[in-house]
Design a protein that fits this description.
Elements lengths: L10 H26 L2 E3 L6 H10 L6 E5 L8 E7 L2 E7 L5 E5 L14 E3 L2 E3 L6 E3 L4 E3 L3 H4 L15 E5 L2 E5 L7 H5 L2 H9 L4 E12 L4 H9 L4 H4 L1 H5 L14 E6 L5 E6 L11 H4 L9 H8 L1 E8 L3 E8 L8 E13 L2 E11 L4 H14 L5 H10 L2 H5 L2 H6 L2 E3 L21 E3 L7 H15 L3
Antiparallel strand pairs: 1-19, 2-11, 3-4, 3-6, 4-5, 7-8, 8-9, 10-11, 12-18, 13-14, 13-20, 14-15, 15-16, 16-17, 17-18
Helix pairs in contact: 1-15, 5-10, 6-15
The structure holds FE2/S2 (inorganic) cluster (FES) and fe (ii) ion.
């Protein structure tokens, strides 16, 4: 009597979900204890239950980056994007408004957008032909009169991400209904983002590079949050041949500040004292920037900025630097925006966009793109260094041995008596700034604390 429910029918499923919950809780408890000791539980970088919970509790709960408004400048322009692993359409509708539509037909769930990018007034599902405006509104149902007389199209438009906001062109969405405003979520990070996106009208050049990496999505997020001390070792070969930022090559003396923000957003800012450097943008390009958009304090930080980098929790990072892919060519100011997308336990997809000042001459933008491709892209000199190292981490993280010994990794740099990375009370910006930012893991610890807190929160 297979169709007769019995008391035991829900048994295995409940047992399975209990096993899952208690296993995740156990790992989170171990992670909490590790963090108290300035360490991180290695297993969280390759574990299927943790990964599943991340999709729900992190990507399902918080603001996630979708794209830059300059990627969809015209009405009807669209791009396919993801929140965690969920597909969305990032589209500028016929009214000029930005929409983030869940790419799932309301009829049977087929995806309605079959291209990575394009321009369209409508999305027509390839299965039975239901047709939606680029606002998400359902306007066409074949055989509606004869087949679906009671169907109300107003009730069957494409679902939308309930929260979509833009911060100076950076569009974020959250699929949880109740989230703080984007600006509240970003908090002090807005002061720093203003330096790159309010001061400069940035534009995405070309399409994003995308490539899979056998590493967990948190590893590069943590790296961009503040791991500046891997550069002399991990990127030595690139620097030796004269590629990289002026500060990394030692052509410019700089002070490095590690800045811990709020909600897991962290920055590293190299300052070249007294110099008008503006991340390597030449004076004729700097003239096009919006000088009046910054406070005096922000302008001073922008002026002396060598390399700036950081991570907006959970998975958006950036690096803005004066660099070159060729020792014989002068540096340009490159802004590389990157997103670390979860694919499966121990595997992620990197997305990388090159941005340049919108008002710069086309030759300059082309050169920025060339430098971006030569440094931070799947074939870039810097990128390949990191990828070739990061891919070993998930192998050890998933090992039986890691579980047997509760293996942890060390994030204690900069703590303890005698550590030189001290709080700089005179730093003009918000958050907590540390001098000697290359000798501390403070940002990375903050990133993992935020991860732990978000993962541990009851819905
Ligand atoms: S699944 Fe889209 S029209 Fe049927
Ligand atoms: Fe690196």
């Amino acid at each position: 009597m297979a169709n007769q429910p019995s008391e035991t029918d829900s048994g295995p499923a409940t047992e399975e979900s209990d096993r899952y919950a208690s296993r995740v809780d156990e790992k989170l408890a171990k992670m909490g204890a590790a963090l108290d000791n300035n360490e991180v539980l290695l297993e969280i970088l390759h574990d299927k239950d943790i990964f599943e919970q991340e999709l729900d509790r992190i990507f399902g709960q918080t603001w996630v980056y979708i794209g830059h408004e300059s990627e969809i400048p015209e009405k009807g322009d669209y791009r396919r994007r993801y929140i965690g692993k969920d597909p969305f359409i990032f589209v500028r509708d016929e009214n000029g408004d930005v929409q983030v539509l869940w790419d799932s037909c309301r009829h049977r769930g087929a995806t309605v957008c079959r291209a990575e990018k394009g321009n369209t007034t409508h999305f027509r599902c390839a299965y039975h032909g239901w047709t939606y405006r680029n606002t998400g509104e359902l306007i066409g149902v074949p055989q509606k009169g004869e087949g679906f007389p009671d169907l109300d199209p107003d009730q069957k438009g494409l679902h939308k991400a309930p929260n979509v906001e833009s911060y100076h062109g950076l569009v974020f969405a959250a699929i949880a209904p109740d989230v703080p405003d984007l600006e509240e979520f970003l908090g002090p990070a807005t002061w720093y983002l203003d330096l790159y996106f309010k001061f400069i009208d940035m534009e995405v050049i070309g399409d994003p590079h995308r490539w899979e990496v056998d590493t967990d999505w948190k590893t590069p997020a943590e790296n961009f949050a503040g791991d500046n001390y891997h550069i002399p070792m991990g990127h030595k070969s690139a620097i030796d041949v004269g590629i990289g930022s002026e500060t990394a090559k030692g052509n410019k003396e700089s002070d490095l500040y590690a800045i811990t923000g709020h909600n897991g957003h962290n920055f590293s800012i190299y300052q070249i004292p007294g110099e008008d450097f503006f991340w390597g943008h030449p004076p004729e390009i700097v003239e096009t920037f919006n000088e009046d958009s910054l406070t005096d304090e922000q302008y001073e930080v922008a002026r002396q900025s060598g390399v700036s980098l950081g991570t907006i929790f959970p998975n958006l990072s950036f690096i803005h630097l004066g660099g070159s892919n060729d020792p014989d060519k002068p540096p340009v100011g490159l802004l590389s925006l990157r997103q670390w997308q979860p694919v499966e336990p121990g595997k992620m997809e990197a997305w990388s966009w090159t941005l340049a000042p919108k008002d710069a001459p086309e030759e300059y933008k082309a050169r920025v793109h060339e430098v971006g491709t030569g440094t931070f892209s799947p074939s870039g000199n810097f990128e390949v260094d990191d990828v070739g190292i990061w891919n070993g981490i998930p192998d050890s993280a998933e090992s039986v041995f890691a579980e047997k010994v509760d293996a942890t990794t060390v994030f204690s740099m900069g703590s303890g008596d005698g550590a030189v990375a001290e709080i700089d009370e005179g730093w003009p910006g918000p958050g907590t700034a540390y001098i000697e930012g290359g000798k501390t893991d403070v940002n990375q610890r903050d990133y993992y604390r935020q991860w732990h807190e978000t993962m541990s929160k009851e819905e």
